[in-house]
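Structure tokens please, single chain.
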Amino acid sequence: MTRSYASFGMVAALSGVLLLSGCGGSGSPAAVSAASVPPAAASSTGASGAPAAQGSQAAQPSQSTNPSGGYWPATVQLGHNDKLGATVVDGEGFTLYRFDPDSPDPSKATCVGACAVTWPPVLANDKIVFQGLDRDKISTVQRPDGTNQVTIGGWPVYRFSKDTAAGETSGEGVGGTWFAVAPDGRKAKDSDY
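Here you go.
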């Protein structure tokens, strides 16, 4: 009799874990393991090989910076801009951008050196914590310095150093090559998302 109660408790606990692992749309943040994404300079895991979500109870890494350029945000999440529509923002609400000289398929990051100081790459440690985004669109690509950069729809993403407040989009259209990224990886201004 005691054994059946213990088995019931284990089944209930396992069911709760399975329910949490499906999170990642709107609501609680979820995480994709960056460690399970195979590091390759010219590739990333796309929709067919996206790493599994770790659940809404995943620890959120604190935001910090990398001495060779880039930073680790607490989250990447769905945002909205009145002019551009759906965008991707970091946990502080800063707009994230994509760079036309980069490549989404295979993923390749080309903004390095001084470029990465002006446009810090969004980096991933062990997990990419996200909210309101499709986990099949989120992955990483290895940068030339060996760090892993977050990708949205295959496009490596960056934050613009001259955006000084959450929601600003002063990087939109800079040099005709920088654009706010939509949740599907396209340019926010061109996306139907």
